[in-house]
Design goal:
This is Heme A synthase. It is built from 8 helices and no strands. The chain has helices at about 1-30, 55-80, 85-110, 115-145, 160-185, 205-235, 240-265, 270-295. The N and C termini lie far apart (about 45 Å).
């Protein structure tokens, strides 16, 4: 029975990933108003009487989101009932439902009521949290199926490192938000050169160029911090294969993220590159969340409180 649960969790991961991509596609193609200001149907019709590309991009996003939402609810209830004694599974199951419902509600709200770009950017952020929750739920379900135990070993991890790792995960969410804000504000080509904006790193932090450069600067710091994370793990935790795998994966993802960020500018917003950019940040953020679970909550006292400064 648990084998079927693990297989169903893969379906949930694929589904939430598709929602993530479709949401980015809606924004990139300007299809957010393809169905007018009615929800859940398109212009108040179950089957629209006329057809446009923008209409079907938006409407297919709604249909897939509803189906995947049902899958996630079934998965979460199933996982909760199967592993009642595992707090991690129950926590992720709750978050999976909470964030997919929240993103759906915000999506409906943005259609019915006009919102600022700042509020619209939150929709992608919640989609990212939904994907990460379902992805980690699947990872840990497979781990339980393989070893029968999640095997978290946080007691040898100094608090300073744990706080740093959790801080990096939170900062990543901020960077993701600035990227989503760039898209919704129409500032993706606010700077048409890369990595500089014209001849300078710093530009007037107002208008589209400013919005764009703020995201670049935030993303550049994220790149540096990820290198730090990988270096600390490689130096101090060579025996922890889980941390090394997670940190190496995160480093690869952030390098590719930087490369695709440049390619978006050089290709003049080529759609497939932009969608790949979205895919990479989702994988990167999920890797950081995985590492956070592996090291435990930062305020828990460890057996060895030797600080690590790198």
């Amino acid at each position: 029975m648990n084998r079927y649960l693990r297989g169903f969790s893969v379906l949930g991961v694929i589904g939430t990933f598709i929602i993530l991509l479709q949401g980015a596609l809606v924004t990139k193609t300007g299809s957010g108003e393809g169905c007018g200001n009615t929800w859940p149907f398109c212009h108040g019709e179950v089957m629209p009487s006329y057809h446009t590309v923008e209409l079907w991009i938006e409407y297919s996003h709604r249909i897939v989101s509803a189906l995947v939402g049902l899958i996630v609810v079934i998965l979460s209830v199933w996982a909760w009932k199967t592993y009642r004694d595992h707090k991690t599974i129950k926590f992720l199951a709750f978050n999976s439902v909470f964030f997919i419902v929240l993103q759906g509600a915000l999506g409906a709200s943005t259609v019915i009521s006009k919102h600022t770009d700042a509020v619209l950017a939150l929709h992608f952020g919640f989609s990212l949290l939904s994907f990460a929750s379902v992805a980690l739920l699947a990872v840990f379900l497979f781990q339980l199926g393989k070893t029968g135990d999640l095997g978290f070993d946080w007691q040898t991890i100094p608090q300073r490192f744990r706080y740093g790792l959790y801080g990096l995960a939170i900062y990543t969410y901020v960077v993701v938000y600035t990227g989503a804000y760039v898209r919704h504000a129409g500032a993706s080509l606010g700077c048409k050169q890369w990595p500089l904006c014209g001849t300078s790193w710093l530009t007037d932090l107002t208008g589209q160029a400013g919005i764009h450069m703020i995201h670049r600067l935030f993303a550049g710091l994220l790149f540096v911090l990820t290198i730090w994370l990988w270096w600390v793990v490689r130096r101090h935790y060579t025996e922890r294969k889980d941390l090394n795998r997670g940190a190496t994966f995160a480093l690869v993802m952030v390098v590719l993220q930087v490369i695709t960020g440049g390619l978006i500018i050089w290709s003049n917003l080529q759609l497939m590159i932009a969608l790949l950019h979205t895919t990479l940040i989702a994988a990167y953020f999920s890797a950081l969340c995985y590492l956070c679970f592996q090291v435990g909550l930062p305020w828990k006292w460890s057996k060895n409180e030797t600080s690590i400064s790198g």
